[in-house]
Inverse folding.
């Protein structure tokens, strides 16, 4: 919303119009350039010193060889060097090339922290085209996020090209730097708290092209990352093997290689996946030993370790699971990750999943309570569709059907194409609330969205169980009773044919025995 409502307000003796005029001349557009000097990305930025020191987001200039800015009056300045940068905060301080006698207008940083409900101004150049765009809003929330630490949630929009623009109080003092917004939600826009910028006190004076997210972020590492993103895991591992030979202390190389091996293991056949997971976890342990302060290293080790446990349970390989293995994944990887970052939502979520798998093995309610505590913490920090789906499963097991249905709806709202919300909702409706027809509709929807054969078979088997339960509602030997049992048998048979899992065959055999018993004793 343009600042029409505030034109007659005053801030410390000056009108909002005067404040906006000053802000306008301190804000600029930033252009990132490739090796040939051609711009390939843009964002916003602002001056914090009349000597030409500017601020923008790290991601605006990431990967650039050079860059320039264009101020509100159309003047172009080259970026001379980088004074300081922090990829975690997504911030850069830089100096422009200018004549000694030229002074630029700059913005002052707020000394008081922002407060929830406080009115704010955002001034930016969205898309690098619509320059000098002013918006207003309020501070919705002050949050701590694992990737940015202290952030400010605001209602003023952050569109493409607005990254790096100042967020100010009505006194014209900068309280944050616009960083990102969530496209799936309305008014979910975030700015890095100005306290993060105040922590950046280095005087590097390095070229733009010398910036690195990680000191071990070599050209080979970057190429390996690209290969990982393209799912070329074997090629990525080959590059990382060579990098580790060159530098055995490159924790980042071990970390990336662990991810590559883990993703291969996720899709590997039964005969080889355990060995691949063990190799993967060995790399994560090495990365954590080299750099014991990286929460993300411990988190990903816990993620792939939990995947291994989950796959063993899903294929009924419980004889090869021991409590020491589970305890190690929980205490070494996940608890350590949480100790390093108490707002690590992924670590809490994975820990909840691991504890839930222990419940599946031990069938002790205390594990459900512990799992619910961890998943609730994850949801309070940064909810995902998986978190709501897991919370729904746990609440259903605990008998909290109302809470479970709310979680299912939240899961579906976040991602209508994720099967799990419908899957759990169908079970609750059919098996807990006696809404069999509605429950089966949800189950069919989940089945249509199942991502792989194993999950598809599991959903079909649950469908078989619903039919088996429904059969008991009819008189033994009646047409409806036998029809429900036939449908149940067909479901279990189909699940067995998809996977070869003997548990499904045993369930199908049970249905045959039940049907035969009923027929033999009702005629």
């Amino acid at each position: 919303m343009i600042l029409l409502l505030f034109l007659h307000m005053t801030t410390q003796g000056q009108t909002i119009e005067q404040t906006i005029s000053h802000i306008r001349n301190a804000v600029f557009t930033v252009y990132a350039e490739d090796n040939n000097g051609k711009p390939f990305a843009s964002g916003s930025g602002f001056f914090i010193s009349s000597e030409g020191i500017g601020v923008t987001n790290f991601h605006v200039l990431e990967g650039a060889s050079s860059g320039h800015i264009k101020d509100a009056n159309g003047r172009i300045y080259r970026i001379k060097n980088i004074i300081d940068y922090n990829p975690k905060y997504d911030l850069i301080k830089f100096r422009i090339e200018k004549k000694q006698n030229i002074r630029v207008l700059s913005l002052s940083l707020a000394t008081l922290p922002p407060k929830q409900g406080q009115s704010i101004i955002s001034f930016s150049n969205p898309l690098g085209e619509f320059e000098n765009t002013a918006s207003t809003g309020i501070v919705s929330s002050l949050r701590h996020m694992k990737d940015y630490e202290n952030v400010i949630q605001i209602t003023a929009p952050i569109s493409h090209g607005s990254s790096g623009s100042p967020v100010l109080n009505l006194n014209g003092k900068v309280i944050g730097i616009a960083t990102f917004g969530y496209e799936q939600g309305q008014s979910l826009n975030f700015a890095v708290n100005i306290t993060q910028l105040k922590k950046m006190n280095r005087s590097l004076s390095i070229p733009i092209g010398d910036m690195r997210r990680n000191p071990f972020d070599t050209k080979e590492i970057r190429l390996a990352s690209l290969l990982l993103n393209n799912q070329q895991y074997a090629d990525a591992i080959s590059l990382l093997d060579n990098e580790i030979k060159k530098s055995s202390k490159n924790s980042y190389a071990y970390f990336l290689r662990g991810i590559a091996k883990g993703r291969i293991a996720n899709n590997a056949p039964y005969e080889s996946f355990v060995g691949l997971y063990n190799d993967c976890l060995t790399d994560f342990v090495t990365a954590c030993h080299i750099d014991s302060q990286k929460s993300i290293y411990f988190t990903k080790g816990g993620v792939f370790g939990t995947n291994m446990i989950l796959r063993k349970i899903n294929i009924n390989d419980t004889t090869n699971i021991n409590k020491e293995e589970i305890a190690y994944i929980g205490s070494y990887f996940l608890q350590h990750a949480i100790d390093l970052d108490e707002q690590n939502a992924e670590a809490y979520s994975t820990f909840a999943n691991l504890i839930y798998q222990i419940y599946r093995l031990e069938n002790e309610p205390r594990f459900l309570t512990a799992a619910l505590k961890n998943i609730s913490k994850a949801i309070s920090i940064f909810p995902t569709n998986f978190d709501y789906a897991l919370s729904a499963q746990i609440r259903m097991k605990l008998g909290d059907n109302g809470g479970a249905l709310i979680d299912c709806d939240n899961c579906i709202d976040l991602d209508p194409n994720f099967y799990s919300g419908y899957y759990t909702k169908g079970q609750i409706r059919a098996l807990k609330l006696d809404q069999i027809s509605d429950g089966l509709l949800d189950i069919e929807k989940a089945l249509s969205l199942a991502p792989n054969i194993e999950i598809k078979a599991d959903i079909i088997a649950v469908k078989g169980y619903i039919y088996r339960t429904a059969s008991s509602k009819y008189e033994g030997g009646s047409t409806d009773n036998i029809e429900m049992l036939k449908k149940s048998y067909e479901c279990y048979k189909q699940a067995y044919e998809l996977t070869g899992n003997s548990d499904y065959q045993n369930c199908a055999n049970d249905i045959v025995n039940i049907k035969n018993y009923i027929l033999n004793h009702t005629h």
Summary: The two ends are 77 Å apart (CA to CA). Residues 1-10 have pLDDT under 50 and may be disordered. The longest strand covers residues 133-145. The CA atoms of residues 295 and 337 lie 5 Å apart.
